[in-house]
């Protein structure tokens, strides 16, 4: 019993250590788990946005070039909007994602899991100016690397977080293998590990799948990858053929 | 309960919930095409959401497969976002903001506003006195090129400013003023994050700059162009810069003396409190740019009228911040 409890505690701790998930405790008493976006994908999203802005401004400047000084005025207004409000407008009106973020499957949300509003979005994008100091987003990068949930200074001040919209690993339903009953008792964690194998097996090449299955040789002397998938199938659906 | 039985029993509920989510997150006009479904969704949504939270908790304790957990997590998250989003209309928010929240917040943080105002005007007056005593001091702060550029802009002999400008130029100037002013304003505010040092720097620097230019142009006798030009928009523009600086000092001070909060929490807390002032500052700067482009640059009004308008704006602004929204705050 004690060993079981210790085992539980360890696995929970490992879970929180290894994964970059951010947990939101809701009033309903469940934790929502969100995969936090790191510095790489966020930089790429920024790059895409920068390119979009540059292309759009170039097109506008050609277009408004025909309008003389009036066009110059509009152009300045556009540059101002692009500098300060491009991110704000997209984040508030487009479910927390600028085109760049959307391309990488990222979104901004409040730290309590609600959609980002005008106030928070304006604040996090104003403080972007400080993040860029003293050059190349140095403060922002340091802040992202040091803060617990990869937040830059603007995120910290506005109470926002950048997360992956969907989980980065797409899992298919457990395989269609006919179920085969597991004869020995398994703990819940062990069951889950086998079910997870079933879900991922189709995405692995067969040597790797075999190699992973063989880890269980001490428990199941006659294990193969197909048999392990069959166990997974049984754990999910019982004796019925799915 | 085996996972498959669980899924079979509840998957229709989950699918319906997914449909409600997509229905509710559509824009109002498109969702109105289907009022009955919308109403049904609205009525049962909270109960179904709680049920899904329950399913998620069950799926986790029973160690159902990761894919199922992720699906339920996503559903619960979407429901959470839908249920707890803030709902207000834009116009009522704007009205409450202009007539109550902005001036009330200004008074609430009057100490920071006062400090930032002093940090701007004291260097300006100091510079003015210094240049009056020793006129060549202006070159210690501005390069000769800057000085001659400023002189050229306000030279009464030169008719660049004196010319009645066509409206397309006014539009250009309007955009330029907005761009310029708001960038300065935002820098003054955001610089406060570095323990208020950035705000301090921008306030003092802009104060010195303003003092140097104004005193120099007065000293060389361009009073008939410079002062009437700045009189109109000065109230809005200078006060807005002081407000931005004040909010910068507010969050800077939160970083230095966080009190019983953690440092970041204190900064975030004060930044949220100060946000109405930032919005208000932006509105003021847009208004200032409008006045600057379409009134200050005109030459038909007599100089006296320009001073009267400028003075009236200062008085109105003072009354606005002193009196507006007092009974409700």
Task: Give a verbal description of the structure.
The complex is a heterodimer of chains A (242) and B (329). With 242 residues, chain A is mainly α. Chain A folds into 2 domains: 126 residues, no CATH class; 72 residues, no CATH class. Chain A contains 12 helices and 4 strands; from the N terminus they run αββααααβααααβααα. In chain A, helix 2 packs antiparallel against helix 3. Chain A is elongated, with a radius of gyration of 25 Å. Chain B has 329 residues and is mostly helical. Chain B has 2 domains: 85 residues; 233 residues, no CATH class. Chain B is built from 14 helices and no strands. In chain B, helix 1 packs antiparallel against helix 3, helix 6 crosses helix 12 and helix 10 crosses helix 11. Chain B is elongated, with a radius of gyration of 28 Å. About 2% of the residues of chain B have low confidence. At the A-B interface, strand 2, helix 3, helix 6, helix 9 and helix 10 of A face helix 1, helix 3, helix 4, helix 10 and helix 13 of B.
Please give a handful of descriptors for the protein shown.
heterodimer, A: 242 residues, mainly alpha, two-stranded antiparallel ribbon, 12 helices, elongated, disordered N terminus, B: mainly alpha, 14 helices
Helix content range of the residues of chain A, please?
A: 55-70%
Structure classification of chain B: mainly alpha
Q: Which stretches of chain B of 5+ consecutive residues score pLDDT under 50?
A: 162-166
Overall mean pLDDT of chain B stands at 84
Query: Main sheet of chain A?
Result: 2 strands, antiparallel
C-alpha end-to-end distance of chain B: 57 Å
Query: How many domains make up the coordinates of chain A?
Result: 2
Number of domains of chain B: 2
Number of helices of chain A: 12
């Amino acid at each position: 019993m004690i060993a079981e409890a210790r085992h539980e505690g360890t696995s929970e701790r490992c879970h929180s250590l290894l994964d970059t998930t951010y947990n939101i405790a809701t009033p309903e008493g469940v934790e929502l788990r969100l995969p936090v976006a790191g510095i790489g994908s966020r930089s790429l999203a920024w790059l895409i946005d920068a390119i979009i802005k540059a292309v759009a401004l170039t097109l506008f400047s050609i277009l408004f070039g025909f309008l003389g000084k009036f066009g110059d005025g509009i152009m300045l207004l556009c540059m101002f909007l692009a500098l300060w409000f491009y991110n704000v407008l997209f984040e508030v009106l487009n479910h927390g994602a600028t085109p760049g973020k959307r391309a990488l499957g990222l979104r901004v949300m409040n730290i309590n899991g609600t959609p980002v509003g005008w106030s928070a979005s304006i604040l996090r994008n104003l403080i972007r100016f400080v993040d860029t100091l003293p050059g190349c987003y140095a403060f922002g990068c340091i802040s992202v690397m040091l803060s617990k949930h990869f937040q830059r200074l603007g995120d910290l001040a506005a109470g926002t977080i950048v997360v992956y919209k969907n989980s980065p690993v797409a899992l298919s339903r457990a395989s269609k293998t006919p179920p085969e009953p597991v004869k020995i008792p398994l703990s819940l964690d062990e069951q889950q590990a086998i079910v997870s194998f079933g879900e991922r097996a189709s995405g692995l090449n067969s040597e790797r799948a075999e190699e992973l299955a063989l880890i269980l040789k001490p428990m199941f002397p006659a294990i193969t990858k197909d048999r392990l998938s069959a166990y997974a199938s049984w754990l999910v659906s019982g004796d019925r053929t799915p | 309960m085996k996972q498959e039985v669980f899924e079979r029993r509840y998957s229709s509920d989950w699918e319906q919930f997914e449909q409600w989510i997509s229905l509710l997150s559509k824009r109002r006009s498109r969702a109105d095409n289907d009022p009955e479904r919308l109403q049904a969704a609205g009525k049962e949504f909270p109960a179904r959401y709680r049920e899904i939270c329950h399913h998620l908790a069950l799926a986790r304790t029973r160690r159902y497969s990761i894919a199922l957990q992720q699906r339920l997590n996503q559903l619960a998250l979407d429901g959470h976002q839908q249920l707890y989003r803030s709902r207000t209309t834009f116009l009522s928010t704007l009205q409450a903001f202009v007539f109550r929240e902005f001036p009330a917040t200004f008074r609430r943080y009057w100490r920071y506003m006062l400090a930032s105002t002093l940090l701007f005007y004291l260097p300006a007056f100091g510079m003015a006195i210094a240049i009056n005593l020793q006129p060549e001091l202006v070159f210690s702060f501005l390069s000769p090129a800057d000085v001659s550029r400023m002189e050229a802009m306000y030279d009464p002999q030169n008719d660049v400013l004196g010319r009645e400008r066509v409206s397309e130029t006014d539009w250009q100037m309007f955009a330029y003023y907005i761009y310029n002013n708001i960038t300065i304003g935002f820098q003054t505010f955001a610089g406060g994050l570095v323990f208020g040092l950035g705000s301090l720097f921008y306030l003092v620097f802009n104060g010195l700059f303003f003092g140097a230019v104004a005193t120099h142009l007065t000293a060389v006798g361009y009073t008939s162009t410079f002062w009437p030009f700045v009189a109109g928009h000065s109230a809005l523009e200078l006060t807005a810069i002081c407000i931005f600086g004040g909010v910068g000092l507010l969050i800077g001070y939160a970083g230095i003396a966080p009190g019983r909060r953690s440092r970041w929490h204190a900064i975030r807390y004060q930044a949220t409190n100060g946000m109405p002032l930032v919005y208000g500052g932006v509105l003021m700067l847009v208004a200032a740019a409008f006045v600057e482009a379409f009134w200050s640059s005109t030459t038909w009004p007599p100089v006296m009228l320009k001073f009267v308008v400028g003075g009236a704006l200062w008085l109105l602004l003072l009354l606005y911040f002193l009196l507006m929204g007092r009974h409700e705050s």
